[in-house]
Write a structure and sequence with these properties.
12 helices; globular; six-stranded mixed β-sheet; single chain; about 280 residues; alpha/beta
């Protein structure tokens, strides 16, 4: 059977097609992101990120856009196809990514690696290469991760707090210059008013959450959910009792962590040590 003829010339990849359709409908009506946000009650940056393919938002956003544009079911159908597409994000992250895009604030504990929102491109690439990504897929994954960092910038940047295990800062990149760049980036990000960084030193001893990466998301409806991730799996925790237990453990780790000011000094010392290491 001959290949199906492409009539529209538009992308056949679900995520790209969804983003293209969003942009097409907005431009046809000569709407700015701000005007669209005002009309629908969502932050304008969400629509920008959706058109760039950085997030697909939630189904309620797609439904609201369908109603506004008079395209009943079209955008929601495209959203469902995009949500099922694993070409850019692995399937286990789909629901988390949709929630992250709409979260009012995030707080996190990092056991072994830096949170994606704080990684440089070199750090993200090196980390993903260890996960056997390569070629175009590796490039897409890196760009997608770096694109998410827009959540921390702009007038509507979300609040972000992270507790870094000392292990994170004692695990450098193979390339010394890239590791120094990452530490400098970490210091620069810590200067932002919406970002708070703690370091929990090894001297704190054993504590809960020591072996998993945990992220809490406060959603627009004030509900809090948690994402718990290991090196080979991740799960969304939504039951209030389970989230509360994780939150209690997080709070206890925070009690053991250095203050933001002392944490910054710790990162600066780590950078100074990296700068003094002899080249090989």
């Amino acid at each position: 059977m001959p290949p199906r003829r492409v009539i529209t010339g538009r992308s056949q990849e679900p995520r790209k097609r969804f983003a293209e359709e969003l942009k097409k409908l907005r431009l046809e009506r000569k709407l700015s992101y701000r005007a669209l946000g005002s009309a629908l009650g969502w932050d304008a940056t969400l629509f920008s990120k959706m058109e760039k393919g950085e997030t697909i938002g939630g189904p309620e956003v797609a439904q609201a856009l369908d109603t506004y544009y008079g395209t009943p079911g079209l955008l929601l159908t495209l959203w469902e196809l995009a949500a099922g597409d694993t070409s850019q994000f692995r399937a286990k992250y789909r629901e988390y990514m949709a929630l992250e895009a709409e979260a009012a604030s995030l707080w996190q504990y990092a056991a072994c690696v830096l949170p994606g929102l704080l990684q440089t491109k070199a750090y993200a690439r090196t980390l993903m290469e260890t996960g056997l990504h390569e070629g175009d897929e590796l490039d897409r994954q890196v760009e997608a991760r770096i694109g998410r960092q827009e959540l921390l910038t702009g007038p509507n940047a979300l609040g972000f707090r992270t507790i870094l295990s000392e292990t994170v800062l004692r695990t450098p990149l193979p390339n010394r210059d890239q590791w120094q760049e990452q530490l400098e980036h970490l210091l620069a990000v810590s200067d932002r008013r919406n970002v708070t960084i703690h370091v929990v030193p090894h001297s704190a001893g054993l504590y809960a959450l020591h072996s998993a990466q945990v992220t809490f998301l406060r959603l627009a409806d004030a509900r809090v959910v948690a994402w718990v991730e290991t090196s080979c799996s991740g799960s969304l925790v939504e039951q209030t009792a389970d989230v509360d237990l994780l939150q209690l453990r997080y709070d206890r780790v925070r009690d053991l962590a250095l203050s933001p000011a002392d944490s910054r000094k710790f990162i600066m010392r780590t950078l100074e040590e990296a700068q003094c290491e002899p080249s090989i």
